[in-house]
Amino acid sequence: IVKDENNQTLPKGKYGNIFVKTKWMFSRYFGDEELTKSEFDENGFINLHDQGYVNDKGELIVFGRTAEVIVRSEDYFHPAWIESVIRTCPDVDDVIVVPVPDALLQNEICACVVLVPGSNCNEKHLQEFCQK
User: Fold this and answer.
1) 43, 84, 112, 123: which is deepest, by most CB within 10 A?
2) pTM over 0.70
3) Alpha-carbon dihedral of residues 85, 87, 91, 94, nearest 10 degrees?
4) Distance between CA atoms of residues 39 and 49, nearest Å
5) What's the sign of the alpha-carbon dihedral 41, 43, 49, 54?
6) Among residues 77, 90, 78, 70, which one has the least CA distance to residue 132?
7) φ and ψ at residue 41, rounded to 5 degrees
8) Is 41 exposed, middle or buried (0-12, 13-18, 19+ CB in 10 A)?
9) To the nearest whole number, what is the mean pLDDT of the chain?
């Protein structure tokens, strides 16, 4: 299930925290009731600390880990999503997206890109490619 920040279950298409419950999963943290209370809801679902939503087909779409979210001004970005877009460029061999502290925006977003050997790709070309 997907829940909002108030622990309320969200309808399909709404973005939030992913909670799961299965027969094989443990039901609590042994010897740590406070951690159990903070991670499990009242119905035994555990917070995976992943963000996503359930689409109209009932498929769970995962954006990434909550801890990896980059906060830039009032916006939240999942590095894995940005990386997946950049990786579609045929000139890109590898990429990682990281936050860079910024006094005004809280964080700026930096994409560290490794180009395919022999590529003539530059920053402007990559930005234009990603905007398409």
Assistant:
1) 84
2) no
3) 140
4) 9
5) negative
6) 90
7) -85, 180
8) middle
9) 88
